[in-house]
Amino acid sequence: MHRLDPEMCVVTATAGEERSGCLVGFSSQCSLRPVRFAVWLSKANHTFGVARDADFLAVHLLGRDQHALAELFGGETGDEVDKFARVRWTTGHGGAVVLPDAAAWFVGAVVQRLDGGDHMGFVLDPVQWDAGDPAAGPLLRLGDAHDIDPGHPAE
After folding, report:
1. Per-residue DSSP letters for 86-138?
2. What are the two backbone dihedrals, phi and then psi, of residue 92, each rounded to the nearest 5 degrees?
3. pTM for this predicted structure
4. How far is 45 from 150, CA to CA, in rounded Å?
């Protein structure tokens, strides 16, 4: 598994008055027709508790030059810090929290939840997106984020 170097993303969730977000390393398109995308959230993560009750999630790709954003969402926990007080954000489809400075993003309706052990999979139907600048630099990958210590409690 150490040879895999997936793209990292920040997933944000809103349920009621609560919002949260975390750095995610497990995500992928999972269907062509209809288009579907799956993200996997750690059950130990604050964001999981919010996402479990959310109808929409926002998925944000980060450029390699956005390591500080990855560190905020991966190295801090929403149990202790309001991450959104430190970044520019806006409200997207269905009340989703969108980080407009991300390299690219989409909001997806949650169509299925899958128990994968210590992570829960959220299958998303994309309903709103910004593909960003296709000529922008490379995306942040797992290898670029190894120095980020997880902010959520140990599992």
Report:
1. GS--EE-GGG-EE-TTSSEEEEEEEEEEEE-SSEEEEEEEEEEEE---TTS-P
2. -105, -165
3. 0.92
4. 9
Is the bond preceding 153 in cis, omega lying within 30 degrees of 0? no
φ, ψ dihedrals at 49, nearest 5°: -60, -35
**Rounded distance between C-alpha atoms, residue 114 and residue 96, angstroms:** 21
Backbone angles phi, psi at 8, to 5 degrees: -95, 155
Asked if the 9-133 domain carries CATH number 2.30.110.10, the reply is yes
31: which residues sit within 8 A by CB, 6+ positions away? none
Domain positions in the chain are 9-133
Q: Checking DSSP bridges between strand 119-130 and strand 90-91, what pairing results, if any?
A: unpaired
Helix (H) or strand (E) holding 74: helix 67-75
pLDDT digits (tens, 9 = 90+) for 38-65: 999 999 999 999 999 999 999 999 999 9
Confidence tier at 155 by pLDDT (50, 70, 90):
very low
**Nearest CA among 153, 147, 143 for reference residue 25:** 143
